UniProtKB/TrEMBL annotation:
The lineage of its organism: Bacteria, Pseudomonadati, Rhodothermota, Rhodothermia, Rhodothermales. InterPro entries: Metallo-depent_PP-like, PhoD-like_sf. One of its GO terms (molecular function) is alkaline phosphatase activity. This is Alkaline phosphatase D. The keyword Lipid metabolism does not apply. Keywords: Hydrolase. PANTHER family: CALCINEURIN-LIKE METALLO-PHOSPHOESTERASE SUPERFAMILY PROTEIN. Its EC number is 3.1.3.1.
Length: 160
């Protein structure tokens, strides 16, 4: 959605539609860095952009991350700054300091919206924090995704 220095023009029409919810699906910012001061600055710049600021003021915002906001292109569990990066993305999503997401490894989450009988459940996965390097199993040809804790959590979240 947002390349460095690029416009957030799409957010104006989105906000005008008065959505109940905005879901960041990753690449919320383009950081690709090991420098956490730079990452903080990039998120702060995104938060200052008028379109993004107006959307946050009028709409519930949730989301996950992908590689560019995680910190390094195609990075996974070997990214050395993943815990600090996680704190940055949770701050960006306005996750309260005492929320359980702050205590676990990864940014996966589940959210339920709507009145009884008309509810929708949004399950956001984390495809970065526990991801193995991009290699294929020589026998099955499959990639590892995600860790057992995340898989277990997704199964439990989807059943309720």
């Amino acid at each position: 959605m947002q390349r460095p220095g690029g416009p957030t023009a799409a957010l104006g029409p989105i906000r005008a539609a008065e959505p109940d919810l905005w879901i960041w699906m990753g690449d919320n910012v383009y950081a690709d860095t090991l420098n956490m001061t730079a990452l903080d600055s990039i998120y702060a710049r995104q938060n200052r952009r008028p379109g993004h600021r107006a959307l946050r003021e009028s709409t519930r915002v949730i989301g996950t991350w992908d590689d560019h906001d995680y910190g390094a292109n195609d990075a996974g569990r070997s990214y050395p700054k993943r815990d600090r990066s996680q704190a940055h993305v949770l701050d960006f999503m306005d996750v309260p300091e005492d929320h359980p997401r702050r205590e676990r490894a990864g940014v996966y989450s589940a959210h339920t919206y709507g009145p009884p009988g008309k509810r929708v459940k949004v399950i956001l996965l984390d495809t970065r924090y526990h991801r193995d390097p991009i290699t294929r199993d020589p026998i099955s040809g499959q990639h590892y995704f995600p860790n057992e804790e995340g898989t277990s959590w997704a199964r439990r979240s989807g059943s309720g």
